[in-house]
Amino acid sequence: MYIMRKHANAAAHASRSHAPYLVFRDICSTIAALCRIVLVERNDFMTAPIRIAVTGGAGQIAYSLLFRIGNGELFGADQPVILQILEIPPAMEALSGVVMELQDSAQPLLQNIIISDDPRVAFQDANWAILVGGMPRGPGMARSDLIAANGPIFVAQGKALNQCAADDIRVLVVANPCNSNCLVAKANAPDIPPERFFAMTRLDENRAKSQLAQKAGALVGDISRLAIWGNHSSTQFPNFEHALINRAPAETIIDDRAWLENVFLSTVQERGAAIIRARGLSSAASAANAALDSIRSLISPSQPGDWFSAAIASDGNPYGIADGLIYSFPLQNGDNSNVEIVEDLPISDYARRKMRASETELMQEREAIRDLL
Ligand code: NAD
Ligand code: LMR
User: Fold this and answer.
1) Would you give per-residue pLDDT tens digits along the chain (373 residues)?
2) 199, 224, 259 — which closes off a domain?
3) Of 146, 171, 199, which residue sits at a domain end?
4) Which of 1, 324, 329, 356 is most deeply packed, by most CB within 10 A?
5) Minimum-distance ligand 2 atom for the alpha carbon of 178
């Protein structure tokens, strides 16, 4: 009562002698109301963050990947994110430096950064897990030489994902040999639907598009329907027989089958090794870029008539590849998360031989990790 009367008196007094103050007050409250509307429309306080677990956070690939996720390149400019970063104990100090840099980037969408050397903490409630952590190969090594060092990592990580991740978890394996590591993670996460596991062959697809574009004098954006089949290894098959350049079959634009079968194929298959020879380190920025491309393709509808590459569980595939592998196929995303293998593509004898060679290699890798499955 007293307060109301006091206010009433004050208002009467103000209306007589403080008119300019009242105008000023009204302007302030209008501005405040407008600010509230803008903030609500921007959804700043309404959209739940997406939790993205990234392993190998102190490594080369993560040094590009984390910052690009933080600035909204993956899930869009209105989608807050939380990074949950895993490292091994000896790399935690280096990771703390990366965290300082993430903080210093002041990215408005990055709501929180959690770091741990325990996969159960890093994967807690994660909606996406990008598994980058592991040894890279050095000069003279094949990617499959990493299987003994890196394979076991995915036993513990598969179990932790199974136990702790969000119900909608999806997993992209980058660390090599990525197809077989993905198989290990999937085998150790029996409660996660198998179709949520992907191994990255998008870097190979991007490399293949770039090679075709350079040869044809076209732009990479002019190349479509170019998929990688098989393993992320030197047996992979970038199938140029289906590829289009400006909607025309690639072979009608690049009228040089010998170049396609030899130079093109081996350039793409051996590109990782060429980068290691030149840089002394394996590809990093292009690998991070391909991880973003992969996930964007997995979460958004595909361009009509086009497709993209990722390695997925081969079980029941329409091309006669053995079940029980993680094999790269042409994929299409119909309605945001319903990723399917493109069916009914014609397969020549030549392509069949290439597809089989990669399948055989993957079966051999699977034998080497039988005890991890
Ligand atoms: P890097 O050595 O720079 O970084 C790897 C990081 O992983 C290191 O910081 C290391 O401490 C960490 N790590 C190791 N074991 C771990 C574990 N159990 N849990 C969490 N973190 C762990 O290597 P990089 O250049 O970033 O490459 C990472 C991996 O990605 C390598 O295996 C590499 O061969 C592979 N790769 C794959 C592709 C592809 O196209 N699929 C492309 C490039 C690189
Ligand atoms: C690549 O393709 O660049 C990576 O897989 C790294 C490597 O070992 O080739």
Assistant:
1) 233 333 334 344 444 445 555 555 566 556 555 544 444 445 455 689 999 999 999 999 999 999 999 999 999 999 999 999 999 999 999 999 999 999 999 999 999 999 999 999 999 999 999 999 998 888 888 887 889 899 999 999 999 999 999 999 999 999 999 999 999 999 999 999 999 999 999 999 999 999 999 999 999 999 999 999 999 999 999 999 999 999 999 999 999 999 999 999 999 999 999 999 999 999 999 999 999 999 999 999 999 899 999 999 999 999 999 999 999 999 999 866 689 999 999 999 999 999 999 999 999 999 999 999 9
2) 199
3) 199
4) 329
5) 5
Q: Which atom, in ligand 2's list, is nearest to the CA of 136?
A: 8
By alpha-carbon position, which residue is closest to atom 1 of ligand 2?
Answer: 272
Non-local (6+) Cβ contacts of 312 within 8 A are: 195, 197, 198, 199, 326, 327, 328, 329, 331, 339, 341
Q: What is the pTM of this model?
A: 0.89
Tell me if 2 is assigned to some domain. no
Q: What is the CATH number of the domain that holds 236?
A: 3.90.110.10
Both 345 and 309 in a single domain? yes
For the Cβ of 311 lying below 6 angstroms from any atom of ligand 1, the answer is: no
For 56, 67, 263, 270, 298, the CA distances from 275, given in Å and listed in that order, are: 20, 23, 17, 9, 27
Residues 193 and 208 in one domain: no
Of the bound ligands, which one is closest to the alpha carbon of residue 118? Answer: 1
Instruction: Give the count of domains, the chain.
Output: 2
Assess whether 232 carries a catalytic annotation: yes
CB 161 within 8 A of CB 169: yes
Distance 175 CA to ligand 1 centre (A): 5
Distance 138 CA to ligand 2 centre (A): 10
Residue 178 sits in the same domain as residue 233: no
| Ligand 2 pocket mutation, candidates 131, 173, 176, criterion most atoms within 8 A of CB | 176
Range of the domain at 308: 202-372
